[in-house]
Write a structure and sequence with these properties.
Number of domains: 1
CATH architecture: Orthogonal Bundle
Distance between the termini: 46 Å
Strand content: 25-35%
Bound molecules: protoporphyrin IX containing FE
CATH superfamily: Cytochrome P450
Oligomer: single chain
CATH topology: Cytochrome p450
C-alpha cells in the first residue's frame, strides 16, 4: 500500500510539472495557439491531448520480461528489461502527421503519453483536468505569455537524447 501511495504521489508530480512547463514554453513561442483557444474555447479538449502528446513527460518505463521472447527481431531473455518508450511512439510519423508540430485541433490523437493496457495511468483524468483548466484560464485571463528565461532539460540515454521540459523556466503573463 505504501508503494502504491508512493507511485500515486510521485506519478502525479513531475509529470504535471513537466507538462505544465512545456505548455508555458510552447505558448511563449506560439502566441497564435493561445489566441486560437481564446477564439474557440472548445479547442481546449483537443489542445490538451495534443500538448500532453507533445510534452510526453514520461519518456519510457521498463518492464521485466517474464519469458524468453523476441521483440521485433531482438531476442529478450526472461528476467531482462524491455523499455516501453511512450515518447517515441507519440512522435511516430506513420501515426501522427508532422509529429514534431503541435496541432491543437489534432483529431484523432491516439497518443499513449499515459501508457497503454493494464497499467494505463491511474491519474489520467486527474491530469487532464488541470491542463484543461490551465488552458481555459490562460486564454481568458492572459493576452500573452513571454518566456523570460529558460533552461531546457535534456535526457541522455545510451542511444538517444531527448528534450523534456525545463530545469528552470521564467515566464511573464500579460493580463487580458
Ligand atoms: C500528464 C500527466 C501524466 C502522465 C503523462 C502520466 C503518465 C503515466 C504513464 C506513462 C504511466 C505508466 C503506464 C504503464 O506502465 O503502462 C503512468 C502510471 C501511473 N500514473 Fe500517471 N501520468 C500523469 C499524471 C498522473 C497523476 C496526476 C497521477 C496521480 C495523481 C498519476 C498516477 C499514476 C499511477 C498510480 C500509475 C500506475 C498505474 C499502474 O501501474 O496500474 N499519474 N502514468
Amino acid at each position: 500500500m505504501q508503494g502504491y501511495a508512493n507511485i500515486a504521489f510521485a506519478g502525479g508530480r513531475d509529470t504535471i510539472i513537466n507538462t505544465v512547463s512545456t505548455i508555458f514554453g510552447y505558448l511563449g513561442e506560439h502566441p497564435e495557439a493561445l489566441a486560437a483557444i481564446r477564439e474557440n474555447p472548445k479547442t481546449v479538449i483537443t489542445a490538451t491531448e495534443e500538448l500532453i502528446r507533445f510534452a510526453s513527460p514520461v519518456t519510457h518505463l521498463g518492464r521485466m520480461c517474464p519469458v524468453n521472447t523476441d521483440v521485433h527481431g531482438t531476442e529478450v531473455k526472461a528476467g531482462n528489461l524491455v523499455s516501453l518508450n511512450w515518447a517515441a511512439v507519440n512522435f511516430d510519423e506513420s501515426v501522427f502527421e508532422n509529429p514534431e508540430e503541435v496541432n491543437i485541433e489534432r483529431k484523432p490523437n491516439p497518443h499513449i503519453a499515459f501508457g497503454n493496457g493494464a497499467h494505463n495511468c491511474l491519474g489520467a483524468p486527474h491530469a487532464r483536468l488541470p491542463v484543461r483548466t490551465l488552458l481555459t484560464k490562460l486564454s481568458e485571463m492572459a493576452s500573452s505569455v513571454t518566456v523570460i528565461e529558460a533552461e531546457g532539460k535534456i535526457e541522455k540515454e545510451g542511444s538517444y537524447e531527448r528534450a523534456n521540459a525545463y530545469h528552470t523556466l521564467t515566464v511573464k503573463l500579460e493580463a487580458n
